[in-house]
Every structure is written in structure tokens, then in C-alpha cells.
TrEMBL record:
Keyword Magnesium: yes
Keyword annotations from UniProtKB, A to Z: Magnesium, Transferase
Source taxon at top rank: Bacteria
Protein name: 2-phospho-L-lactate transferase
Species, as recorded: Planotetraspora silvatica
Length: 312
């Protein structure tokens, strides 16, 4: 069975581990968010691609959900000793190697999709990981503080500010000129089923849907999404701050309406949200807490089962 999944962030990567367990032997293509990507110290960092690669490849810092296991931070300390900025983004020594290899290949002219394939050759994530686009796009956030109103990179808002200042606008810079990476539209076209993990609907799934052509391709497929909001609150991360920034209520109903019934055929919600409904969408309620690998596998299996029912 050919499955396509759009993913970003820690929740998305953890869900994909469950999807692999729920569909052994299936051919899974992951379209990864690159709106979080940032250039630091001359190196290109791709947090959501790396989080999927490390999580599925066995190299993730499990407790943190991002970055490498068994990390040290000597290079970070040395950079700080030179006083170079930023010091608020925690790059570990092992993680630096990934960014050095990626930056070296990008500088040699390889597109991000080929760089990602080369990095995954080491990690063997067991899925085909494609960036949403080879073109550079970045999520920037408009904030206002004592220095006035300005746009900052998403990572600065997310990591340095911890979303403490309201995001007046969240936008994917470069989206309108970007094209899907090679293989993205083909994978969607050939997919039997498409699953949307409980990733951040604005800065992870939402950014992928902004790449011209991707949403339209998905609308032709059977798509089942897993609500990232349980009982009015995100399980982890700051999806609420992002949803508020775009004027959307933090609820399973509002996220379903944000995605829309042209895109979504099936929607998994937590039991406390079983009143969620939208014409043209089959809603199913079940426990949605990914609090163990087995629970995650069961959620993924439920999403696949609903997709099968709807695809028939
Ligand atoms: N998140 C943090 O909260 N603090 C960090 O210092 C941090 C560093 C970091 C380094 C590499 C990487 O791949 C991810 C990192 N993240 C960090 C997580 C990152 O901000 C988020 O995973 C995504 O960008 C949003 O899902």
C-alpha cells in the first residue's frame, strides 16, 4: 500500500513511528515541512526534516523530541566564547555534522531533496523523506515590542521568545515562487491513502499546503487527518499561539474547518471532541494521546482503517 504523509515537528515525527508500525511493508513517503529552516553560522539547519530523519532513524533525543541523542555542546560553547549570535538555538556537536554535510552539498549545487536523500542513506528512516520544496521558503512572524513592529524568523519567535509575544502575522516567505520538490506531486498522485499527522496545522501542515500545487493534488485523494487539538488545547508545542495568530479558534472543529472538507475526507478526534462535524467529512472519536509507542501505533492504525473505509 502506498501512503503519503505530510509532517513537521515532534508530534508529526512520533506519529510517523506509529504509522510505520501500523502499516509494516507499506511504502510511505513523508513530505516534510521546510518553513522552519534557518541559516546559522553559515550552515543550513532543517529542523523538521532532521526531526523525522532522527526519530525514524533511531538518532533522536527522545526526551527533547528534537536534536541528537547523546549530545554534547562544545562547539556551541566555543561559539558563545567568541560572542557570536545567536546563542538561543541549541545546536549540538553531533547535530552540527548534519548541518555541515547539508551545507557542503547545497554549496556544491545539490538540491535539498538530493541532500536529504543522502543524509537518509545513513539514517535509513524506513520512509522516503522529501522536502516540500527545493526552493528556499521560511516562516517569519510579525511581532511588536519596544523596538517597534518587525518580522522575525519563526525559530526566534518559537525558541528565543517562546511565543511570548503575540504573532501579529505568520507568513511563509517565498511560498508563491516555490514549486514542490521532485517526486512530491508524483507521490501524492500515486498514493492509495494520505494521512495528516497531528502536526502544527499552521506552521507545519499549513506551510506545506501553501506550496503551489500541493493542496490541489491532495484534494483528489482520500485524506484522513488526526486532530492536533484535544479538548481545546494542543497536546504539545504552541499550536494555540499559531492558530490565534491566524484568527482560528483552538479546537478540533476549527482546525477541521481550516483544512476544509475539500481536503479532508476523514477526521480523527479525541473522545472529548466527539461533537465535531463538517459536511462531507467522516468524523471518528477515539483516544488520541500518543503516550506510548503502542498507543501511537493504534492511532495510526485507526487513521489507516478510516482511510481504507473511505477509499473503498
Ligand atoms: N527547540 C527549542 O525549543 N530549543 C532549541 O534550542 C532548539 C534547537 C533545535 C536545534 C535543531 C533542531 O533540528 C531543532 C531544534 N529545536 C529547538 C526544535 C525546533 O525549534 C522545532 O522542532 C521546529 O522547528 C518546530 O517544530
Amino acid at each position: 500500500m502506498r501512503i503519503v504523509s505530510l509532517a513537521g515537528g515532534i508530534g508529526g515525527a512520533r506519529f510517523l513511528r506509529g504509522l510505520k508500525a501500523a502499516a509494516p511493508g507499506s511504502d510511505i513517503t513523508v513530505i516534510g515541512n521546510t518553513g522552519d529552516d534557518i541559516t546559522l553560522f553559515g550552515l543550513r539547519v532543517c529542523p523538521d526534516l532532521d526531526t523525522v530523519m532522527y526519530t525514524l532513524g533511531g538518532g533522536i533525543d527522545e526526551e527533547q523530541g528534537w536534536g541528537r541523542s547523546g549530545e554534547s555542546h562544545v562547539v556551541k560553547e566555543e561559539l558563545a566564547a567568541y560572542g557570536v549570535e545567536p546563542q538561543w538555538f541549541g545546536l549540538g556537536d553531533r547535530d552540527f555534522a548534519t548541518h555541515i554535510v547539508r551545507s557542503q552539498m547545497l554549496a556544491a549545487g545539490y538540491p535539498l531533496s538530493q541532500v536529504t536523500e543522502a543524509l537518509c542513506d545513513r539514517w535509513q528512516p524506513g520512509v522516503r523523506l522529501l522536502p516540500m520544496s527545493d526552493d528556499r521558503t521560511e516562516t517569519h512572524v510579525v511581532i511588536s515590542d519596544e523596538n517597534g513592529r518587525r518580522a522575525v524568523h519563526f525559530q526566534e519567535w518559537w525558541v528565543r521568545l517562546r511565543a511570548s509575544l503575540p504573532a501579529e502575522q505568520i507568513g511563509l516567505v517565498g511560498a508563491e515562487d516555490a514549486t514542490p520538490a521532485p517526486g512530491v506531486l508524483e507521490a501524492i498522485g500515486e498514493a492509495d491513502l494520505v494521512i495528516l499527522p497531528p502536526s502544527n496545522p499552521v506552521v507545519s501542515i499549513g506551510t506545506i499546503l501553501q506550496i503551489p500545487g500541493i493542496r490541489a493534488a491532495l484534494e483528489d485523494k482520500t485524506v484522513v487527518g488526526v486532530s492536533p487539538i484535544i479538548g481545546g488545547a494542543p497536546v504539545r508545542g504552541m499550536a494555540d499561539a499559531c492558530l490565534t495568530a491566524i484568527g482560528v479558534e483552538t479546537s478540533a472543529q476549527a482546525v477541521l474547518e481550516l483544512y476544509g472538507s475539500r481536503l479532508i475526507d476523514g477526521w480523527l478526534v479525541a473522545e472529548e471532541d466527539k461533537g465535531v462535524a463538517l459536511d462531507g467529512v467522516t468524523v471518528e472519536a477515539r483516544p488520541l494521546l500518543m503516550d506510548s509507542p503502542e498507543a501511537t501505533r493504534d492511532i495510526a492504525a485507526a487513521a489507516l482503517s478510516l482511510a481504507h473505509t473511505l477509499h473503498a
